[in-house]
Amino acid sequence: MMMQENTANWYAIHMDRQDQEGRILDYCQALGKDLLKDAFFPKIRYYKRYQGAWHEEEKLLFPKYFFVVTNQIDQLYRLFQKAPKPVEILGTGDTPVELSNDEIHLLNKLMNHRHEIEMSTGRICDGRLEVSSGPLRGMEDMVRKIDRHKRMAIIRTQMLQREMEMQVGLEVTEKS
User: Which secondary-structure segment (H or E) carries 13?
Assistant: First the structure.
C-alpha cells in the first residue's frame, strides 16, 4: 500500500498494547482497499551500540498508535469496535478527527514508501546543524536537540492534536 496525501483522510488509532502490530495490520489487510486505502505504523531507523559495534535498528515512531487512510471512517470505526482487541480512533467524543494537512505533509516528507524514517547524516558547523542526506535535510530548524552518542535528533512538532517531540535517527559525522 502506498502513502496517500490528498485522496483520503488520515486518522490516528490508539491501541491498548504496543505488541499488536502484526495482528492489527492483518486485520486491516482483510478489510480491503475499498474501505481502507492504507494502514501503517510509522517507524524510525536508527543505530544502537551493543556488543562493541553499531547495529541498525527500528522502532515505532509513536508507540501504541497506528495510522489509517480512508474516506469511510464511520464504517471503519464500527468494524474496529467489533475487532478482537478494540481500538480507539482519536477524536472528540464519538467524532473521529482527521490529521491536519500539515501533519500529513510532515509525515510524508519524513517517511519513505515503507513508512520508515531513515537515518539522516550531517555535520555541525559553527554551532549549526547541516544535514547532508536523509529526511531531515532542509528541516534543520525543526531539530531541538542532538544526542551524538545515541545518534538521535529530537524534533518538536504539532502532531496528534498536541505539541510533541519525536526522536529520529541522525549521525553527526563531524563538528567544527
Answer: strand 9-14
CB of 78 closer than 8 Å to CB of 150? no
pTM over 0.90: no
Which residue, 97, 170, 89, 90, is CA-closest to 134? 170
Label residue 28 exposed, middle or buried (CB < 10 Å: 0-12, 13-18, 19+): buried
Residue 116 makes CB contacts below 8 A (sequence gap 6+) with: 42, 43, 44, 45, 58
Residue type, 105: H
Place of cell 563531524: 174
- 72-88 b/e with 16+ CB inside 10 Å = b? bbeebbebbeeeeeebe
Grid coordinates of 101:
494537512
Residue 169: how many other CB atoms lie within 10 Å: 25
User: How far apart, in whole angstroms, are the C-alpha atoms of residue 54 and residue 151?
Assistant: 10
The position carrying cell 517531540 is 165
Look up residue 92 and give its three cell numbers. 472528540
Question: Could you report the per-residue pLDDT of 20-55, keeping only the tens digit for each?
Answer: 788 888 888 888 888 999 999 999 999 999 999 999
